[in-house]
Specification:
The protein is an alpha+beta fold. Helices cover 33% and strands 26% of the residues. The chain is built from 16 helices and 22 strands. It is elongated, with a radius of gyration of 40 Å.
Length: 552
């Protein structure tokens, strides 16, 4: 092959060639006369001539280039040349043969369609980091070349293939991807281990939840949810999102979730729980913030009382399919400090479904957040079935896939509308207590009649009446009007609750033998499966206990 007839069309070649002149500097040319003329002439005479690029032997240059070089020409890509590096890598091919037979390694790499494209367009193309049959990785640059004296016809065009060994870079990139994969796996494992492995099952609610990690390491964040039974038939529900990604966000999430469960046991109103979480989030990491919704469901009230720290609104669908958005009140995210949160409420009547979710479900790039929430409302309005079915349907309607760029948490709860025999297992009875010596006997008689009508066995009937007597006596002695006795049964337990107007919470203490009081709460704690007390929103308190029903 006569290389003097071929020239590579590299960007800027023509401009540099046109800029060359045969003009040489005068030997006595000086700047400011600071160098003596004799010395300048001596230096000029001894300086070796610098050869022009056009004078360099092209073949010698290409033979010594460490990269792999091959030259093919014509529409059928006949092999014209390979350099020494190419021969060392793949052996000496037959010159003049079609590249498909002479260079099978390029065929395995799928390079021939690229050669056709370069020959047609006359523009260079690059194929990055392909692993060759020799086990090494190369980046291929294909540059069009033309025969200088033929006018550049398409049939005379050739392609110079220049392959740079990037094995070290490819291996480093593979190690980096493997490291990122391990980090993501660690973050996802930590995230899932910190989420509840099994949701608690309230008597009056059906609950389902799902978590989908983002499709990249950066998308594994701090989304979490939880369901906490508070006793007395009440249930706390929480969902939150720690800003940030990776293991750190998951670790902060775990601390906040643990704190929520601890604060929930205090049976505080939702806004007070968020106040405590706000201070804790600042102590955990002053640079980390989180959004959160904490809600409490009381089946006796038929409402969901909630407080929000910068989180997205709860959506509630009634039994007719109408969706309501719980927008207010909303405070700033946890960790910002200096804000007084407030509680709000939204109806959750029998037959209703509520959805709590994180922003990954509704937030999309180049779309307004309200549009995503509105789309979720439309999907919820037509969603029916069990909470798990609804949960899966909402995730699908939002287009969440394994490659989704953010993690997603969804919590769905239903307050079933029970009818027929099922409704007989969920009953309520209440009695307003008037002060005086007759209040306790009236309460015992009322409890005895109700428990008899509910067909409880004798031992459970007697325990229920005894617990009623002790709680009413405690309220008459230490509480203030108005007082009320409430009995409630579910398919799993009997609940006895007494409310009064005093907000001083009772505590269990050990009565001395000579003490004439102080044994009521101790007796209730001994005979009941569980007991507790809480302050009521309008002032006052509620003291309750519950008994597990025998399994049928």
């Amino acid at each position: 092959m006569n290389f003097t007839r071929w020239s590579a069309r590299l960007p800027g070649t023509q401009r540099r060639a046109a800029a060359r002149t045969d003009t040489t500097l005068s030997p006595d040319r000086r700047g400011d006369g600071s160098v003596p003329a004799a010395r300048a002439e001596q230096l000029t005479d001894e300086a070796p001539p610098v050869p022009a690029v056009d004078d360099l032997p092209v073949r010698d240059v290409l033979d010594r280039v460490p990269a792999l070089v091959a030259l093919v020409h014509g529409p059928d890509h006949r092999l014209a040349y390979v350099n020494d590096a190419y021969v060392a890598a793949f052996g000496m091919p037959d010159l003049g043969e079609r590249a498909g037979e002479a260079l099978p390694e390029l065929d395995e790499l799928g390079l021939f369609p690229l050669l056709d494209q370069v020959q047609r367009s006359g523009r260079p193309r690059t194929l990055k980091s392909r692993k060759a049959p020799d086990g090494r990785s190369y980046t291929f640059t294909c540059t069009p070349v033309t025969e200088g004296d033929s006018g550049g016809g398409r049939g005379d065009r050739g392609v110079l293939v220049f392959a740079t060994d990037v094995t070290d870079h490819a291996e480093a990139a593979a190690r980096l991807r493997a490291s990122e994969g391990r980090q993501r796996e660690t973050a996802v494992t930590l995230q899932r281990s910190l989420l509840p492995q099994e949701l608690e099952e309230p008597d009056d609610l059906r609950v389902a939840a799902t978590y989908h990690p983002g499709g990249t390491e950066a998308a594994v964040g701090g989304d979490w949810y939880d369901v906490i039974t508070l006793g007395g038939g009440r249930t706390a529900l929480v969902i939150g999102d720690v800003m940030g990604r990776g293991v750190r966000a998951a670790a902060v999430m775990g601390q906040l979730r643990t704190a929520v469960r601890a604060y929930a046991r205090l049976d505080l109103p939702p806004h007070e729980v968020l106040q405590l979480l706000d201070g804790l989030a600042t102590e955990i990491d002053a640079n980390q913030i989180a959004t959160c919704v904490y809600a409490i469901h009381d089946p006796n009230e038929g409402r969901l009382v909630y407080a929000s720290a910068g989180h997205l609104p709860i959506l509630v669908r009634d039994e007719n399919g109408t969706v309501q958005r719980a927008d207010e009140p909303t405070g700033p995210p946890l960790g910002t400090g200096g804000w007084m949160h407030a509680s709000g409420s939204i109806a959750l009547t029998p037959g209703s479904t509520a959805v709590l979710y994180t922003d990954g479900l509704v937030e999309r790039r180049n779309e307004d957040l309200d549009e995503g929430i509105a789309a979720l409302e439309r999907a919820l309005s037509g969603a029916t079935g069990s909470p798990q079915v609804i949960c899966d349907r909402l995730v699908r309607s939002a287009g969440v896939t394994p490659e989704h760029d953010d993690d997603v948490a969804v919590l769905v709860l239903q307050h079933p509308a029970r009818k027929g025999p099922q409704a007989e297992l969920f009953r309520n009875a209440a009695l307003e207590l008037l002060g005086g010596v007759e209040a306790a006997p009236r309460a015992r008689a009322f409890a005895s009649g109700v428990l008899t009508s509910w067909r409880f066995p004798t031992d459970l009937h007697d325990l229920g009446v005894l617990a009623t007597s002790e709680l009413v006596a405690n309220s008459l002695q230490h509480g203030t009007p108005p007082m009320r006795l409430r009995l409630r049964r579910t398919d799993r337990r009997l609940i006895v609750e007494v409310t009064d107007g005093d907000d001083h919470l009772p505590r269990r203490r050990r009565a001395e033998p000579v003490d004439e009081s102080g044994r009521g709460i101790a007796i209730v704690a001994t005979i009941a499966s569980n007991w507790g007390s809480r302050r009521t929103p309008g002032g006052g308190k509620a003291v309750w206990c519950e008994f597990l029903l025998p399994k049928p």
